[in-house]
Design goal:
Number of strands: 0
Distance between the termini: 62 Å
Helix content: 55-70%
Length: about 80
Amino acid sequence: MSAITLSPSKIMAHKGIVVIPLSEYRRLLDAAIQTRHLTGKAALRLDKLVEDGLREYREGKTISAGSLSEAVKKFKHAR
């Protein structure tokens, strides 16, 4: 087993370090979600969709479920 020497000044300069297995790092990379910035009509449509969803949530018109498949089953049963 090899030893690793870390400089305290380097750790402080980088505001800390994290040591995780390579497999976990790759899993985290794969799970990362891309950031999108919408403008124009697309942004307005999304704002309206969120606004409508929040209003329906406040009015109690939404379905609580642990998974998407469970939500679909509940939605079909509620109709």
